[in-house]
Amino acid sequence: MTAFDYQNGELHAEALPLSAIADQYGTPCFVYSRKAIEQAWLAWDQALAGTPHLVCYAVKANSNLAVLNLLARLGAGFDIVSVGELERVLAAGGQPSRIVFSGLGKTAEEMRRALEVGIHCFNVESTAELERLQQVAAEMNLKAPISLRVNPDVDAMTHPYISTGLKENKFGIDIAKAPEVYRHAAQMPNIRICGVDCHIGSQLTDDTPLIDALDRLLALIDQMAAEDIYIEHLDLGGGLGVTYRDEVPPTPADYLGKVRKHLAGRDLTVLVEPGRSIVANAGVLLTRVNLLKPTEHKNFAIIDAAMNDLIRPALYSAWMGIDAVTPRTDVAPLQWDIVGPVCETGDFLGKDRELALAEGDLLAVRSAGAYGFVMSSNYNTRARAAEIMVDGQHSHLVRRRETISELFAGESLLPEV
Ligand code: LLP
Predict the structure, then answer these.
(1) What is the position in ligand 1's atom list of the atom closest to the CA of 318?
(2) Where residue 213 falls among pLDDT bands split at 50, 70, 90?
(3) How many CB atoms lie within 10 A of CB 331?
(4) What number of helices (H) and strands (E) belong to the chain?
(5) Does the C-beta of 241 come closer than 6 Å to ligand 1?
(6) Which domains are seen in the chain, by residue range?
(7) Which helix (H) or strand (E) segment is 34 a member of?
């Protein structure tokens, strides 16, 4: 059984019918399953049992405080990319010593705050960043722990927008240049080298490129050790895919089993930064059919969610499963385009979906727990959706729906004359 299954003809989140959630909180809303999030994190952690490791959840995938707090309670580490994410993790009870700071454009202020709270490591992406970090750490009279994010030049074979490990991508330091940057770092008085890392892309359904990247990193570690530059941890980034439709990605256990084989006999701590694989299938976007608009060419079901709530179909042509919460038998199924009310042709969540629909029906957009709410916007002055966490028979509002007045509360008019 998964966290979102049909029971008595109605789609449930754990033990709660989604219709009850819609009645209580309104639509559109994101609904998450506590159990699914916890099980997914534990699958990663358990797959590394017996090896020194830290599973750093990639906060960007879903940064709701309740989600972060559940993971913090399990002892998770966190992968952050901004001071905003850092403050969220701290507010949610995450331990600073388990945080890695990724991202290629860290500001001096962000570095200062991360040093002040004592994060585990900065994943450094350029020489310029390294030099800035040395300067900030010197001003604070501290040593900044660093890992170099190298670009191993492997093709992750995923969507070009979420592929990051090729030479032409903006991310990381060319692996051929990495030894030179490590030597430079080793000379810096306020820098402490602790790791190496890479992240080659997201939604990977084959682990071959991840293992290729691992081998390239191990060769680099050996090369540096020969120069007396010792690397303690190996951070493999995130990227493991999930099933949206019929993809069959490796499980964390399959993938990490291979990783462990390649690491046999080495004294390395393993870090991973999974995001999507922990939260994607732990959430749905619950939405109601507002109007039906059958035309000669196409049938449009206009829902109350839109591209501003879930941009993945518009941005990456991503396919997301869409199911009726209470499938009906009193009308014939038709092919529907499931579209939002936003004034863009790209505002669709699914095309040509066979569904039996009537106005007012509830639909669940599957796999919306990752890169859903976090990528939402206020385009067309639409308030962002509520977020609900289900825990067995209970539901909790973990982010209330925005109000219209909040949307322009920070704006002001020019003086009269
Ligand atoms: N670590 C780093 C440095 C990353 O850049 C990312 C994701 C992750 C970890 C987590 O990767 P995951 O395990 O979630 O694949 N918005 C896109 C995905 C962008 C991923 C960006 N980086 C989407 O909706 O498909």
Answers:
(1) 25
(2) very high
(3) 11
(4) 12, 21
(5) no
(6) 4-32+280-407 (2.40.37.10), 34-276 (3.20.20.10)
(7) helix 34-47
